[in-house]
Amino acid sequence: MSITLHGFSLSGHSHRVQLALSLMGLPHQVVQVDLKHGAHKSPEFLKLNPFGQVPVLDDDGTTLFDSNAILVYLATKYDADRRWLPRDPKGQADVQAWLSVAAGLVAFGPAAARLITVFGARFNPEDVIGRAHGLLKVMDGLLATRHFLVGNNATLADIAGYSYIAAAPEGNVDLAAYPNVRAWLARVEALSGFVPFQKTPVGLAA
Ligand SMILES: N[C@@H](CCC(=O)N[C@@H](CS)C(=O)NCC(=O)O)C(=O)O
Predict the structure, then answer these.
(1) Residue in 11, 13, 31, 35 to alter for ligand 1 test, most ligand atoms within 8 A of Cβ
(2) Which residues on neighbouring strands pair with residue 5, listed in sequence order?
(3) pLDDT in tens, 137-193
(4) Total-model pTM
(5) Which of 49, 81, 158, 189 is most buried, judged by most C-beta within 10 A?
(6) Architecture of the domain defined by 3-78
């Protein structure tokens, strides 16, 4: 087995995949894609992902793009016990709901807020920070009665949600009012095989 993650150290979408690989105990190498110099728009990279984005996974020559699709692939192919993606229809749908949240509210809330401070993206801070707080309020309420996003065991839902919520203060999204979310982040960080997302000293994290 030879797994290569084409990613970028400041990308939460890339970190999500690296976290999954590490938590599942899958040996892999990480190749940094030089986003600053447009390597993700080169003809070679566009063959791997026509959208010109990281992450891309190469598993013995099979290439895949989209972080959440990669998480599902890894769990389906390598997690024989299906600890990370339950087999039962309800459990699977519950995880999928959070993958949709990760591709929606997370991407256009806390992740977008951080793109402003880390990369100078031209989003409206009020809009994206407001969206982040709307999401965090819901998460904090749900996490009052469960340890992880889907019940009391960690799943792909937590892997997909972690990186950009942990880095939310970098985008001026304050986590102070969400004790259950902070306790959940700490629970993810305590999982065996956890790897941290590289910090950037900007926003509230400065
Ligand atoms: N839906 C994609 C989003 C990936 C994404 O937004 N990647 C960013 C880095 S975090 C990227 O490559 N941006 C460069 C670009 O869009 O040109 C996924 O989940 O993988």
Answers:
(1) 13
(2) 30, 57
(3) 999 999 999 999 999 999 999 999 999 999 999 999 999 999 999 999 999 999 999
(4) 0.98
(5) 158
(6) 3-Layer(aba) Sandwich (3.40)
Q: CATH assignment of 89-195?
A: 1.20.1050.10
At 20, is the secondary structure helix, strand, or coil? helix
Residue of 65, 68, 64, 61 whose CA lies nearest to 84: 68
Location of each CATH 1.20.1050.10 domain in the chain: 89-195
List ligand 1's pocket residues with C-beta within 6 A.
11-13, 35, 40, 52-55, 66-68, 103
What is the location of CATH 3.40.30.10 in the chain? 3-78
CB atoms within 10 A of CB 182: 16
